[in-house]
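Write out the 3D structure for:
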Amino acid sequence: MKPASVTPPSACLHWSGRTDKGKVRSNNEDAFLGMTFDAREIHRLGKIGEASTRNSDLAFAVCDGMGGAKAGEHASRIAVEKITTLLPRSFRQKAAGFDAGFEDVLTELFLQIHQSLAHLGESYEECHGMETTLSLCWFTPGWMYFGHIGDSRIYYLPKGAENVKQLTEDDTHIAWLQRQGKISEWEARTHPRRNVLQKSLGGGNQFVDPQVGAVAYAPGDTFLICSDGLVEGMYDHHLDELLRTPVTAGKEPTLAHLLVEEALEKDGRDNITALVIQVAAEAE
């Protein structure tokens, strides 16, 4: 579905984020981002907060880096920093009358991040082989545009829906086999090659072909962006139950906190990151 030409009303977004290195890893190669931006400036967001889409767009992202030594950690953080400089350009271009489609904007964003990581990997030995996943949600009034590559995920729980929906597709051969009905969810989750990526940013990947899409959202909807460490020990129905947990906006424990704690209890072998965005009607 593509956005309508009439701009929908603005909304208030409540978010919470948390990341943890897990029980086994010595460092955290995950990174997450929240920011607001308009034609003039950007603001990085804290781990908990709320903001309106009335005068600014909002973007949230999760990256899971990979590579020897600390190359993966650098890759995820470089990707996050690149988003803060590249995505706001689209807002300025639109204000200047250059109205590129969201597919073009996001595809170009992913390509530029990929090229930056690939260049660093070729130029510095300590960065050789660095790569990262990227799952990004870009909120404008009434519409969320998303871009994705790798096996981090974006989930969507509409108000009143029976089940949470995974918007993104994992870029692994094992996930493809599951989508084709050739193996079960249990077989996919226990397969020894389930984490071998076919696509990512940086590394030795020659082509960048991110999944992009758009979702019309409304008050009461919830979005979750997470690294694969969150879902390693949790099935979708566990996520569904936790995302419906009543919490007080802006107060601990947040939904992101509850999700990460549950993931640590059930598995915890990988880094874990959860970023939850809840949509509320804007106060009159």
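The two ends are 29 Å apart (CA to CA).
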